[in-house]
Amino acid sequence: MDKIIINGGKKLKGVVTISGSKNAALPILISTLLTDDRCEIRNVPDLEDVNTVISLLRHLGKEIKKNKDRIIISKGDNICSDAPYDLVCKMRASVLVAGPLIARFKKAKISLPGGCAIGIRPINIHLDGFKRLGVKYVIKEGDISLKAKKMVASKIILDFPSVGATENLLMLSTLVKGETIIENAAMEPEIIDLANFLNKCGAKISGIGTKKIIVNGIKKLNGCTYTVMPDRIETGTYIISSAITSGDIKITNLIQEHNESLIEKIKLAGVKIYQKNSFLNIKGINKIKSIDIETQVFPGFPTDLQPLLMALMTIAKGESVITETIFENRLQTVGELVRMGADIKIKGNSAVISGVKKLTGTKVVASDLRSSAALILAGLAAKGKTEITGLEHLYRGYENIVGKLKNLGADIKLIKEGYLKKGESV
Ligand code: EPZ
User: Fold this and answer.
1) In which element (H, E) is residue 198 found?
2) Which of 326, 330, 331 best tests ligand 1's pocket when mutated (most atoms within 8 Å of CB)?
3) 295 within 8 A of 303, measured Cβ to Cβ
4) pLDDT by residue (tens digit) across 59-117?
5) Ligand 1: residue whose CA is nearest its atom 4
6) pTM
7) Domains of the chain
């Protein structure tokens, strides 16, 4: 089993460049199903989830060429509209193929995406929106078969601003004749990137980045070349890495507005942040102050950075309260941090953290993608050696995190024992 070994205590220094956004690249790649024309998607991060989407698109009949961060997608021979369980269970975002397949072929068959460590992750909001557009579906033996004889543009009001449901309905409605309105839409930057890509393909989407998205359906989308935005969660990861090691790092190739909530919060903790045009400079201080956070939809504090901020608060001065409001089971990093000497109590959907002087390195197991990153940050700050396993989660969402941290002076190494093929990097 692969493991990461960290000898903690090094202050990170130097420059790190942010890769393309996983959560923008996945829906953009999937949305190429809406056209048979050639698309070239650039700045795509080298991740397991991207490899899964490539396999899924090939299965659905696309021809794909990958050249470093560029992915060229064109029409293959045998188009099919079934997304099989072995691919869907590897990556929940596979459910996003439903919108494009229904838009193009008026049908789709998808294995129901299972839950994951952070929650049961239902897709009822997706399905309610599909129904409003005239789609019918049956769920049988773990699969969902969707059909649409005649689709009608409609006004949809989402029960919750679900990122995935907004993306699925946005993609579907680009090819549904008439005006579709998506109210209470998600406003995450990844939605904006997807909508910008679709408009570059000829879609007619307005209200991008607001809670009310208006789509005027057209007959056909064209192909285009598009560059994916930088990854705001990776950016937040490196901001916190400098804070937790009292480091002094510069982050380049980022969009600072995407991390305003984290930047405001971490400044309250006493961390020095200098915002220059093309980079962000984060200078950690020796004893950061404790702060309280509550996760919210964008532009609130992102749930994906909650485990990482928790790691930081374990060595802050005083007591902090971290409340998770987006997922029902996203506090499980607590157990492994307590094994490293953290003082954390769970009260409902909140973690109450009393800062300790130092964490102590030990063996820990990651339960999901962002917990993996949180345990790495904790290991960077801890006294002694930390050994992290459960890396299959990490490989899904961070490009070359071990190499990037090593370049910043971390004493970190990856021992590959089988998960990754020889020569692949993390
Ligand atoms: C996206 O997941 C991201 N994944 C998640 O990032 C991110 O945490 C999440 O948005 C919230 O920002 C990708 O973009 C691939 P949601 P998604 O639909 O679309 C409930 C990471 O670490 N809900 O906004 O699945 C749901 O259970 C991942 O990169 C329903 O109840 O998130 C959750 O409690 C983790 N019914 C809440 O809404 C539905 O039909 C938010 O889910 C859909 C969602």
Assistant:
1) helix 189-200
2) 326
3) yes
4) 999 999 999 999 999 998 877 878 887 887 778 888 999 999 999 999 999 988 766 78
5) 23
6) 0.96
7) 3-19+230-415 (3.65.10.10), 22-227 (3.65.10.10)
